[in-house]
Amino acid sequence: AVGKPIVISTWDAGVNANKGAWKILGPGGYALDAVEAGVMVTEAEQGCCVGLGGNPDRDGVVTLDACIMDEKFNCGGVAALERIKHPISVARRVMERTPHVLLVGEGAQQFAVAQGFPLEPRKLSADAEKAYKKWLETSQYKPVVNIENSKSRPNGPVGGPQNHDTIAMLAMDAQGRICGSCTTSGMAFKMRGRVGDSPLIGSGLFVDPAVGAAAATGQGEDVVRIAGAHTVVELMRQGRSPQAACQEAIGRIAAIKGVKAKDIQVAFIALNNQGQTGAYALQKGFNFTVSTTDTPVLRDSEFLLK
Ligand code: SD4
What SUPFAM superfamilies is this protein classified in (predicted)? Predict the structure, then answer.
């Protein structure tokens, strides 16, 4: 599929994100630049639960997770990063300018500042503030299924901004290079210090140029349990289509969770090196965005639990 750029990303936040990516991919740019620029659009959008506008942890602090991977197995990530607007760009710096793949917490922030990223004020967005105050009334941590359908923050005001905790993006450029990115504020009202799947290479994101790429969204703990994105890529290596690979990985999570599967949402997106895409979710309500031109197409995902 060399010569045919394509981008796939999670949720309808992907519509704007893909447009950002296409500005680079369309004119023949590098997939890595595209997946970084694409999710930066979402990180900067207030009212979307990615980036500093996202919901805080249970102590009221927004902590961000992100990772990025290129077509040569280079990868980088940050976890529990505070007060930095573009964690995906810090993840890329970790990949390109350190001998490491993952920096966390204070160390990640220190690195970001040393790299010239401005330290933003420690302040919740108006919507996050409202949602957090509401949550404090009960202080119960309960992952919310299909928050994307409620168009509101978990336990927050209905009719509030759409709630997509994560954006993950996979792209192939005109030269056939496949890269991926993933960025999130994590599960709302998580324990302080909690890290999900999104900054973990192999769980939230994985790229193997010989096969393709995959990424995850939803209940991170259950993605990590099966090393989700890596599992999807390995299934594609064994001959599954992107769609079938996502479906099989979701099936595994459902089998592990048993009756508790209905309490969570998990979804995967995938792209193979032939330029085919696929997606599959545990539950109704997941959507994803595909671009093969400058007009992104938003699609509802198939799902397991009917
Ligand atoms: C996490 N996977 O931190 C993220 C959250 C997410 O839609 O994707 N929510 O577990």
Answer: N-terminal nucleophile aminohydrolases (Ntn hydrolases)
